[in-house]
Here is the input.
Amino acid sequence: MKKEMVNEATAPPESRLPEEEAMIEIVDMHKWFGDFHVLKGVDLTVKKQERIVICGPSGSGKSTLIRCINRLEEHQRGRIVVDGIELTNNLKNIERIRQEVGMVFQHFNLFPHLTILENLALGPIYVRKTPRKEAEELAMHFLEKVHIAEQALKYPGQLSGGQQQRVAIARSLCMSPKVMLFDEPTSALDPEMIKEVLDVMIDLAREGMTMIVVTHEMGFAKSVAHRVLFMDFGRIVEGNTPEEFFKNPKHERTKLFLSQILH
Amino acid sequence: MPSAILQNHEAEIRPPVTSVGVIGWVKQNLFDGWFNTLLTLVTVYFLYRIGPPLFRWMFMDSVWFGPASECNQNPGACWSIISSNFRFILFGFYPYDQQWRPLLAMLILFGFLYYSRDRRRWTKRLGYAWIIGLSAMGILMRGGILGLSAVESSQWGGLPLTLILSVFGLTAAYPLGIFLALGRRSKMPIIKSLSVVYIELIRGVPLISLLFMGSIIFPLFLPEGITINKILRAQVAIILFTAAYIAEVVRGGLQGIPRGQYEAAESIGLNYYLTMRLVILPQALKIVIPPTVSILISAFKDTSLVVIIALFDLLKTTQSVLSNPEWMGFSKEAYIFIALLYFLGCFSMANYSRKLERELSRD
Here is the structure.
């Protein structure tokens, strides 16, 4: 059932192979919440234009992992380097990385007091210092891209969940990010709205965006990802091309998880 | 089309007559069960007993203009205590022949407030206009230049004084309260603890004690020969006091904003200042409009406490009239008048806040 959510006819993005240059490098990264060891030494290299899907049971640390990449969570050991900039306590670096890394949340997190257009133009105007008129043109461009331009003057509360999530994606794109992080982008959506959001993400993939997606949409993983990673108990248990990952999972834990999620 | 048939069918069934219209309203609100019916009847009886005599006292048998002697012979209200002492109640000891100046200053203030009621007019130019307007009011009140005779601030009183204390008190306390609220939620320990100490200390004492401190204790610490205007000291006390309360209300609003809003703002690269200014505060301050306005209203009324440090605000000038032997015994009328003035101020604040809430609603 879930597999059919992705329209197989349009789905497979042109299989552009990732470049060799690394976009994100994570080395032996640890993270604790209080005494709780959430991430226990994660190593991950994401190449430019590579698309990675992360799956795993809840509490396995997959959301925390991608939230560390733009410093919504602070890692306590190891290194994270994004596009050549290392994440440290240096506020300048954090701001630079956040401008280059777009993030889409499970609950959209649009700004409810601003119109859709204002939501999109906010970053360009205040962070990139784009003149207001240009920023609004940019916003309209991306709204058209996610097929929602006619809603530009509405407020987020007046839109459906699927529409809100597409706006959230467009809002990130307005900052012309080099990487997009997706934190369970379809988990809070009604089933009939999942496809419209995944379609937008597939379009993005086709254009060669570097993407890390935490999701349980295995159809999406199969058709879009270069690599699928399985996380459990704060570690990356295994990672492979989608074909290998779904056909020949190596670890017992992965097999069990896949059997539960694919029925 | 089965759904169209269904809709047509539904439209034919009308609600029963007794549940809509005037009859429905009366039934639902006044005679809904035996207890409500009883309450309605009792209320109607009391209104019948109180209303007509009150009306007669206020409007039929009352004396509007005339000497106190006429009032003594009349059973109705003596409104002439207001009309005969109008200028003293409004302007206190401000020199009689110069009282057009505070009047003009107040008219300027009301004009500005009225013009600024529409949020679309809140531009930079209006901000500059306010600065010019306030300076003009200051010059009018104080005099000493432009051929206006100087009037010591100790002679200021009545409504202008009340308005000065309130308008400056509220407009200064609001931003200060926001800073304190942000400070209390700051991750920087020094700023955080300073804010907490400030808020708890100020909230822990009554306004009266702050006013006393400002007017009696504070001057003791100043070097000899330096005095700070008494009105200014009361003003500062009111600002500091109100800000502490506003801070706690705003903090409540900040806590009501989901963490996702901060994260979304950060993830598009907004720094702390921009996140607060563009994303968090507009939402938080909107949530807390009702409690904030409650604080502003009570601060407006609390300005009358300055009588205890011998400032002649509106309430004090009225009381002075009452201590005049000629007008003794007409305190009801005088206080009703003052209550009316305060009510007008409070009611327009409440009304304005409801209008703001409606405008800012995004549902």
Remarks:
- The radius of gyration of chain B is 27 Å.
- Chain B has a mean pLDDT of 84.
- Chain B touches chain A through 21 residues (CB under 8 Å).
